[in-house]
Design a protein that fits this description.
With 251 residues, the protein is α/β, with parallel strands linked by helices. 39% of the residues lie in helices and 15% in strands. The model has no long low-confidence stretch (mean pLDDT 96). Bound molecules: phosphoenolpyruvate.
Length: 251
């Protein structure tokens, strides 16, 4: 069981536009009353962020973020989102290095580091995602892969900034597959991440939330949240159903 306030984060990926989001939020907000003992964060598509923010005016307990930013903050990068613009649009959190960014779009560890630095520069919190593929796990490389992604991803931040990040351990083999890591699997890697964070910035690292992500559902969330060093969850598929998401946020 973690000592931190749990963080429940929902990554909508490329789902729910400004029209669909109204019915979704009607259902979710009716089912989830504001609570001060947890942090709920939603990551809608950037094009839906303004609508979500205006719907959440009366619900400051729910925070919002974007799913990605470019390494540069402005210029000739057609189609990209910048940290400068995300902050201006009201984002407080940014997913960095999500496995789909790494494995579908080829994002490197160094790009993740640059993105974390930009996100911090603009006063937002990076949620740095790390995780191994099934081949890397079967080869016994989980720890090495995760630590390399973690250390490189945080390498452009000073100690104070590192203490302000959120880390998400998301094994690639568990994302969108229905195959969840066991609470013990999650704890094993979370302990390794915690030790590396403490080594990097000292005892303040004990207050950095480490989330688990990968096929979290309304059914398995409680067991995962009860696991040692699991401070919250990052949820994809199950956050798209308002009833499941409300159950997860109430777990
Ligand atoms: C994710 O996209 O971060 C994720 C964990 O997805 P899912 O919950 O669908 O596995």
């Amino acid at each position: 069981m973690a000592h931190l306030k749990p963080v429940l984060a929902g990554n909508w990926k490329m789902n729910q536009g400004p029209t669909a989001v109204n019915a979704y939020l009607d259902a979710f907000l009716a089912a989830h009353a504001a609570r001060t003992d947890r942090t709920v964060i939603m990551f809608p598509p950037a094009l839906t962020l303004a609508t979500v923010r205006s719907r959440l005016k009366e619900r400051p307990d729910i925070r919002v973020g974007v799913q990605n930013v470019h390494t540069e903050e402005k210029g000739a990068f057609t189609g990209e989102n910048s940290a400068l613009i995300a902050a201006d649009a009201g984002a407080h959190f940014v997913l960095v290095g999500h496995s789909e960014r790494r494995h579908v779009f080829g994002e490197t560890d160094v790009e993740s580091a640059k993105k974390c630095a930009k996100v911090v520069e603009h006063g937002m919190v990076p949620v740095l995602c790390v995780g191994e593929t099934i081949e890397q796990r079967e080869h016994g490389d989980t720890e090495q892969v995760v630590l390399h992604q973690l250390r490189t991803g945080l390498s452009m931040l000073d100690h104070e900034a590192v203490r302000g990040v959120i880390v998400a351990y998301e094994p690639v083999w568990a994302i969108g597959t229905g195959r969840t890591a066991t609470p013990d699997d999650a704890s094993t890697v979370h302990r390794v991440i915690r030790a590396a964070l403490v080594e990097l910035v000292g005892d303040g690292a004990r207050d950095i939330p480490i989330l688990y992500g990968g096929s979290v559902t309304a059914t398995n969330v409680k067991a995962l949240l009860a696991a040692d060093e699991v401070d919250g969850v990052l949820v994809g598929g199950a956050c798209l159903d308002p009833a499941s998401w409300a159950t997860i946020c109430g777990a």
